[in-house]
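Quick one, tokens below:
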């Protein structure tokens, strides 16, 4: 299902990007101001390159933030598991002590 959805969204976007590139083949001069370099590149390369750079940076930043959240959730779950294990051990000890205190004496012994 996800593969079909990817094609439904991706194919029209690819066609639009190709159409944009074909329609904007004029050259522009990109002046890298403090540096003495100038580049002569097509308009579509400027627009699509900026879009690609933004996409990559967004994915990197989003992955870093999401990774931090996942790590925090994992630490919290680990802490809860340790607390639950300690509680279970405490309850087992209390149950054993209560069972020993309320155990009936062996048969044939006077109480």
């Amino acid at each position: 299902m996800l593969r079909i959805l990817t094609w439904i969204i991706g194919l029209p976007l690819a066609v639009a990007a190709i159409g944009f590139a074909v329609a904007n083949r004029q050259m522009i001069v990109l002046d890298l101001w403090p540096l003495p370099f100038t580049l002569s590149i097509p308009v579509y390369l400027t627009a699509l390159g900026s879009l690609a750079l933004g996409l990559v940076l967004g994915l990197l930043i989003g992955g870093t933030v999401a990774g931090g959240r996942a790590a925090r959730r994992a630490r919290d779950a680990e802490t809860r598991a340790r607390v639950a294990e300690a509680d279970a051990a405490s309850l087992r000890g209390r149950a054993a002590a209560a069972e020993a205190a309320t155990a009936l004496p062996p048969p044939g012994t006077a109480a």
